[in-house]
Amino acid sequence: MSETKGYLLGSLFILSGTLLLGLMHLAIALYLPHLTSWSSPPGKFVTMMNDMMGWFPYLLGLILLVAGVMLVCRTYFLHKRTN
């Protein structure tokens, strides 16, 4: 993979993951006033994620963010070594 493609794809993953996580946190904040009850373990956050069925987009956002950071770092260190 060329240097430009690695940076571009990694940056796109970082942006996508950040937007998805931000929107999920916004949805959680908007849903919080409507939460009527929860149990102590697991708590409010997990109860909201289960009620909203939001685990898939939340974990996808985390995976995209981590994959983007890893791709940018890999591209940086791979091309730094060759120069």
Q: Mind explaining what this structure looks like?
A:
By secondary structure, this protein is mostly helical. 80% of the residues lie in helices and 0% in strands. It is built from 3 helices and no strands. It has helices at 3-31, 44-52, 55-82. Helix 1 runs antiparallel to helix 3. The chain is elongated and about 60 Å long.
Radius of gyration: 17 Å
Question: Hey, roughly how much beta strand do the residues contain?
Answer: under 5%
Low-pLDDT ranges: none
Oligomer category = single chain
Helix fraction by DSSP (H/I, runs of at least 4): over 70%
User: What characteristic shape results from the CA principal axes?
Assistant: elongated
Number of domains: 1
Amino- and carboxy-terminal Cα gap: 16 Å
Major sheet, described briefly? none
Work out the helix count.
3
The helix/strand series, from N terminus to C terminus, equals: HHH
Question: What's the gist of this structure?
Answer:
It is built from 3 helices and no strands. It has helices at residues 3-31, 44-52, 55-82. The chain crosses the membrane at residues 7-32, 52-77.
Q: Topology of this structure?
A:
Blueprint: H1 3-31, H2 44-52, H3 55-82
Helix pairs in contact: 1-3
What key attributes describe this structure?
mainly alpha, transmembrane, about 80 residues, membrane, transmembrane helix, Menaquinol-cytochrome c reductase cytochrome b subunit
